[in-house]
Amino acid sequence: MSTAAIPSPASDRMSYWRLVTLLAAATLVMAALSLAVGYARLDLVAALGDWFAGRQSLPALVLVELRLPRAILGALVGFSLGLAGAAMQGLLRNPLAEPGIVGISSAAAFGAVTVFYSGFAGAFALALPLGGIAGALLAVLLLFALNGRGAGTMTLILAGVAINSFAGAMTSLALNLAPNPYAALEIVFWLMGSLADRSLIHVWLVLPLMLVGWALLLSSAPALDGLTLGEDTARSLGFDLTWLRVRLIGGAALAVGSAVAVTGAIGFVGLVVPHLLRPLVGHKPGRLLLVSGFGGAILLLAADTMLRLMPIRPELKLGVVTALIGAPFLFSLIQRLRREA
Amino acid sequence: MRIEANGIAIAFDGTPILTGIDLALRPGELVGLVGANGAGKTTLLRILADLLPPAAGTVLYDGKPAKALGRRLLAQRLAFLAQGGGVQWQMRAEAVVALGRLPHRRPFADLTEADRTAIGNAFAATDASAFRERNLDTLSGGERMRVLLARALAVEAEMLLADEPLVGLDPRHQLEAMALFKRIAAAGTGVVVVLHDLSLAGRFCDRLVLLDNGRILADGPPAAVLGDDNLARAFGISVARGERDGAHFVLPWQALNHGEAN
Q1: Cα–Cα distance, B5 to B22 (Å, whole number)
Q2: Which among A49, A302, B131, B162 counts the fewest CB atoms within 10 Å?
C-alpha cells in the first residue's frame, strides 16, 4: 500500500523534536568550544575546580569574567537573531526579510551611538546597552502607533525602511560631528559588532528582555502557519493579525533590540539561518522558529570562536565575520529564487 | 448557521462598491454569487466572512454580531476560500490542508484523530489524495486549487464561502467541484460560491444572487435570475438556452452592443 511511504504525523513530530534536540545539543557543544578557545591558555578543569571551590585564581577569573559571558551572550544573541529572523520572514511572507527589517536594529544602534556621543558611555557600564534598548523601544512605539491605526504589513515594511534610513542617517551624522577621530573610530568599531569584553552584568541585563521577547515570538507559531495562505485566510482561521503584529514586533524589539544594544549590529545571521533550516521543517513557518533560534546560536558561536582562532590581531569584528560568511549564502539564495521565478 | 446582511454599503476612495445589500444565507443551500468584473462579489463575500467591516449595515451570524460570537468560534463555523490563494512557502499539500484544522486545535497540540479524518475526507472530496505528499509549488494551477479547496473543506464549517473556487480547474473537476458543493449543501452546510460560469451556476445552484454595480439586481431561483433582461443588463450578453435530461441550461453566446445592453 502506498501509505507505507507516507510518514505518519507522529513520526513527523518526532523528527521535528529530534532536530530541535540535535540543534540544542550542538549549541551546547559550540558554547563549550567557545569557553575552551581564547587568547590565554586555560586549563578548563582546573579553572572550574577553582571556581566551584570559591578560589579567586586567575584561571577561574578568566573563565567566569571573560569566557563565560562571551559564550552565553553569543548563544543568547545568536538565538535572538535566528528566531527573530524566522519570525519576520513568516510575518512578511518573504525569505529576504531579516530581524532588522522593521527598523529595530538600526534604531538600537542609533540609541547606543547617542550614548557614545553624549559621553554617558563612560559614566556607567550599562549606559551603552540601555541607550540601545531605548532606541529600539522608540522605534517600536512608532511602529505600534502605525499598527494601531490599522496599518497593514506593507505599511510596516515602509515604516521600517523610513526608520532604518533615518537612524542610519543620524548615526552617520554623529560620526560626521564626532569631536575627535578616536571617538569616531570607537563608534565605528562598536557598530561592527563584537562579543569581546562583555561581562555577566550584560547577560543579566538582556536575559529577561530576551526571554520575554522569545516567548512572544514563539507563541506566534500557529498564527504564522495560518498566514501561509495570506492575510484573509489567516483571519478566517481565527487569527487577529493586528495582535499578531504587536506580538512579533514587540518580541523582535525585545530580543533583537537588546542583542544589538550589547553587541552592536551583527548582520546576516537572522537572514541566512532561517533560509538554511527551512527545508528541514517542511517549510512550516511555525516550526522554523525554535529551530532557527538554535541555528543562530550555533552560527554566532562558531563565527566568534573562528575569529579568535584566526591569526589576525586585533581580532576581526563579529559583524564583519558573519557578513563574510553570510554574503555568499545570500548570493546563492538570490540565485535559487531567480531559478524558481 | 444563518448569515443575515442588512443595508450593507461600502466605498473605496469615494467610489461606491456596494450599496443597500440585503441578503440572507441559510444552511443547506448552495448559493451562486454572480456578476460582471467589478460588480462587488469579492467585497461582499469578504464582508459576509467578517474580513472587511462594512461602512454601513450589519452582518449577523445566527442573529449575533461577529464580536459576540468570538473570533475562534466564528472560524470554526465559517470557512473562507480566498480568490487565487497563493502559498508563500513550499509546503506539502498535506500540511496546507492541515491548516484548515487550526480553528479546532489547541495551540501546539498534535493533530487529533478527528483532525486526521477531516483532512483525509477533504482530500478525498477534492480528488487530491494523489498529491497529498507533493510540494504545492510542484502542482499545476488546477491541482493547487483543489488542495486549497480541500483546506477550506477541512474546517468542516457550517458555512463555506468560496471566492471563484473553479479557477484553473479542468471541465471534469469543475463539474465534480460543483457536485461536491451541492452534496455538502444537501448535507446541511450553507455554501456560497462566486462563479463566472453561468452554465454551471444555473445548473447546480439552488439560488443565484446577481450583483450589478454594487447592487443586488436579482436574487432567487436560477431560472428567474438568468432571464434575458438581467443578463443583458448585468453582463451585456445574450445567451443560448437548451435542455438536457430535463434540466435547463444557459450558454453565454454573444456580447451585446452598449445600446442593446440597456
Answers
A1: 5
A2: A49
Q: Which comes out higher in pLDDT, residue B47 or A182?
A: B47
Say yes or no: A337 contacts chain B, CB-CB below 8 A: no
Question: Which residue from B76, B87, B137 is facing A228, i.e. has the nearest CB?
Answer: B87
Distance from the Cα of A314 to chain B's closest Cα (Å) equals 43
- Which of B72, B83, B102 is best to mutate for the A interface (most A CBs within 10 A)? B102
Which cell numbers in the block locate residue B92? Answer: 506539502
Among A177-191, A252-266, B41-55, the range of highest mean pLDDT: B41-55
Predicted confidence (pLDDT) at residue A7 exceeds the cutoff of 60: no
CA separation for the pair A201, A130 (Å, rounded): 12
Which domains are assigned to chain A?
69-340 (1.10.3470.10)
Average confidence (pLDDT) over A292-299 = 96
Please state, in angstroms and as integers, the Cα–Cα distance from residue B164 to each residue in B18, B191, B254, following that order.
Answer: 19, 13, 23
With b for 16 or more beta-carbon neighbours within 10 A and e for fewer, the B233-247 pattern comes to bbbbbbbeeeeeeee
Are B99 and A229 within 8 A, CB to CB? yes
Q: What is the CATH number of the domain that holds B40?
A: 3.40.50.300
pLDDT of residue A8: 55
Contact B152, B160 (CB under 8 A): yes
Looking at the structure of chain B, the number of domains it has is: 1
Which residue in A has a C-alpha nearest to residue B80's C-alpha? A236
**B132/A contact by beta carbon, under 8 A:** yes
CA distance B25 to chain A (A): 18
Full domain range(s) for residue B130: 3-261
Q: Do A233 and B82 touch (CB under 8 A)?
A: yes
Count CA atoms within 13 Å of residue A314 on its CB side. Answer: 5
Nearest partner of B154 among B195, B109, B108, B120, judged by Cα? B120
Give chain A positions within 8 Å (CB) of B100: 237
- Cell 454595480 locates to B213
| Shortest Cα–Cα distance, B134 to chain A (Å) | 11
Kindly tell me the burial class for residue A145, based on how many C-beta atoms sit within 10 Å of its own C-beta (0-12, 13-18, 19 or more): exposed
- Asked if residue B116 lies in contact with residue A9, where contact means CB atoms within 8 angstroms, the answer is yes
What SS3 state is found at A89?
A: helix
Say what the pLDDT of residue A198 is: 87
Q: What is the average pLDDT across A227-256?
A: 93
Q: Which residues of chain A neighbour B120 with C-beta distances below 8 Å? A: none
Averaged in consecutive runs of 10 residues, what is the pLDDT profile of chain B (262 residues)? 95 93 96 95 96 95 94 95 81 94 89 93 93 90 91 96 92 93 93 96 96 96 95 95 89 82 49
Q: Which of A32, A73, A24 is nearest to A207 (CA)?
A: A73
Q: Do B99 and A228 lie within an 8 Å CB cutoff?
A: yes
Task: Please judge whether A9 and B111 are an interchain contact, meaning their C-beta atoms are less than 8 angstroms apart.
Answer: yes
Give the amino acid at A153. Answer: T
- Kindly report which listed range (A181-185, A217-221, B196-200) carries the lowest average pLDDT score: A181-185
Closest CA to A86 of A297, A286, A333: A286
Query: Nearest-5° angle of CA A128, CA A134, CA A139?
Result: 130
